Sequence to fold (79 residues):
Amino acid sequence: MGYGFGAFLLVVGLILALAVTDAVEGVDLTMVGWIMAAVGAGIIALTAITWNSGRRSRAVQTVTHPDGTQTQVENRQQT
Fold:
């Protein structure tokens, strides 16, 4: 979905919640607007988290000791 869809939901939700004064029978447009704004903000936050986690690099190194045992060493770096 990404930043674009999240921003779209956020903007439309805030417009419905704060600027629209019309009434639709059986639908609370203010509540629908706040829900859309919250979902949009959540999508933006999740997109930022998932895109940032992809920028980390990981290297796994296997070390063989003189007694024949092996140990794996993992190095994580933020790039």
Strands lie at 56-64, 70-78. The CA atoms of residues 63 and 71 lie 5 Å apart.
